[in-house]
Every structure is written in C-alpha cells, then in structure tokens.
Amino acid sequence: MTLTDQSTGIRQGEELDAALIDPYLKAHIPGLEGTPRISQFPGGASNLTYLIEYPQREFVLRRPPFGHKAKSAHDMGREYRILNQLNAGFPYCPKAYVHCTDETLIGTEFYVMERVEGIILRADLPEGLSLDEGQARALCHNFIDKLVELHNVDYQACGLGDLGKPEGYVQRQIAGWSDRYEKARTPDAPAWEAVKAWLREKMPADHPTHAIVHNDYRFDNVILDPRDPLKIIGVLDWELTTLGDPLMDLGNTLAYWIQADDPAPVQLMRRQPSHLPGMLGRQAFADYYAERSGIEIPSIDFYYTYGLFRLAGIVQQIYYRYFHGQTQDKRFAQFIQMNKLLEHMSLKVIDQSRL
C-alpha cells in the first residue's frame, strides 16, 4: 500500500501523445532515456496535470484546460516563472525545467516541473493514514504556518516585484470577480446581486503590508512528507498567484474550509479533511493566522464572504465550459448547484454579520 499521491488513467478527451512529448523533453532536459509512460492526476478542475515517467526520472506536466479560457487565465509562462523565482524565498515550490511556447506541439503551451512525491490530502484521508486529534491539530497549525511564511516572503528579493499591482487590490478583486462572474454566467446561474452590493459597501482598505498571494491555498495543493505526514514538503498550483492583500488570501482559504459543524449540504462540497476532530474551525483558523502573522483581524466576515463569491466565480467559469459543451468532464455538471449553495452560504454570513 502506498500513501503517496497516485496518477490514474487519462480522462477521455484529455489525452497527451507521448510520441510528441518525448523528443521535445529529450531535446531540453539532458540525460533522458527510454520511452515515457504518461498518466493523469485526478485532482484539479482547471489546469490539467500529468505524470511523465521515464525509467530513471519522473516529471509533472501542466497544461491549460480544453475549451473556453478566461482572459489572462492559465498563463503557463507566468506560473513557470513563479516556480523558479519564488523558490529562493519559499523553498516549497517544485523546480520547473522547461516552458514550451510552441502551441503546435500539443495544441497549447505547457511547462514541465519536478515531481515532488508525497501525500496529497483530498476529501478524506488516504487509506492507511489516520490522524488522532492532536496530530490533526498539529497538521492544521503547520498548514497555516506555511501560509504565514508565504505572506512574509520578500518578493522583491525574489525578483517578483512586478508580479502584480498590490495597490487597490481589494477594490480590484471585488470589481474583477463581479465582471468575470457576469461574463461566465449561464441562464441557470444565480445573480449574486445582494452579495456583490454588500461586498462593495463593506470593502475595507488594503492591508498596508503587501504579500505574495497564492489564491488557491488548500490541502490538496500541499504535499506531505510520506515519512512524516504532519510535515509539508511542497506547495503546488501557483496559477493564480499575484501580489496583494494577505487577508484576501486568507479569505480564499477559508472559503474552502468546511468545518465539522457545517450543515449537510455544505459537507457535500468538502474537498479536504478539514472536518476531522482536532482541525480548527474557521474562526479559530483566522485567530491562529492572526497570532502567527501579527496581523489584527477584527472580523473575518468580509474576507470569508469575498472568498465564497470568488469561489463561485471560479466554479461558474468551469461550469460555463461544461454548459457550452467545451468539456465532457461529468464532474462539472453539478457545479451549478455548488454555485447556488455558495450564494446561500454568503447570504447567511451577511445576515449574521455585525459589520
């Protein structure tokens, strides 16, 4: 039995031709021999991730999804650059080896990085791994500590000072996600008007300290050491990374964080084992982040609601591709229900908020 994350068969319509990939990789990465075996990792609903196995070495290939792509999304060159430059200040980024800009090879750009072999937690713990309450709490603390560590990185020293425009980040995110949501809206999608109005009304000033914002920090984007599953050895999926307000990044993570006492419909949306005994609830999560980062957080309501709205925007962009027949992935058929549930969750937070 292995606890490490395993690739599977390739989903229909997402095949990758080894006869095209192999000569390109051998021309750009010295010492490769043999014929590669290609399989696909099951996680992820955006960029597609494949395992390339040579007899002596393993790589991970990332490419954009098929079908409609939001403008500026899925920038392979940008993600490749982040991996290589951020590693100097945050040594949990996998090493990226090559970025292919020739779209005639497989129909799109892609990049190839090292495989960091380890455990990736999805909805439930993998078979053979159990965590008692104390271990779950320690892992949760380690998970938050890595986010704090990322937010403390000197991005100028990493040469990433031009990665984004941190000034005006909060306002730009609310306006930007409102616009992206409307562009991806399908006839069966909710309007989110009350939530958008509340976010505009309650919008705080940007936090004065700008930071690297991961924008998708959750358990299935971190890699755990197989020898010590409480230790994080890698952080993945830098597709959405930019410079901005660290509390907005915290809100993104809280939006994914389904806690043990959330109602049954919300539990159906859970994609990480954040419900385990010992895992912190959202408020305790934010309190621990505040303690470790030294950032005072009077209320998480705005940041959490923003995170839920942004998540709905991502879900809707993916559902848009399914609705219009641009992807055949059946996982996405239910994303419209997730969108509606996220709106309901947001309205509940607003109704109970003291902001």
SS-derived structural category: alpha+beta
Cα(first) to Cα(last) distance is 50 Å
Give a quick account of the main beta sheet: strands, pairing sense, barrel closure: 5 strands, antiparallel
**Helix coverage percent of residues?**
25-40%
Strand content: 5-15%
Q: Total helix count?
A: 10
Reading side by side through the largest sheet, how are the strands ordered?
1-2-3-5-4
Uncertain parts = none
**SSE ordering:** HEEEHEEHHHEEEEHHHHH
Number of extended strands: 9
Shape: globular
Mean pLDDT: 94
- Rounded radius of gyration (Å): 20 Å
Note down, in words, how this protein is organized.
The protein has 355 residues and is an alpha+beta fold. Helix content is 38%, strand content 12%. The chain has a 5-stranded antiparallel β-sheet with strand order 1-2-3-5-4, with helices on both faces. A two-stranded antiparallel ribbon has the order 6-9. Helix 3 crosses helix 8 (282-293) and helix 9 (301-323) packs antiparallel against helix 10. The longest helix is centred in the last third of the chain and has 23 residues, at 301-323. The model has no long low-confidence stretch (mean pLDDT 94).
Task: Please sum up the structure shown.
The chain is of the alpha+beta class. The protein contains 10 helices and 9 strands. The model has no long low-confidence stretch (mean pLDDT 94).
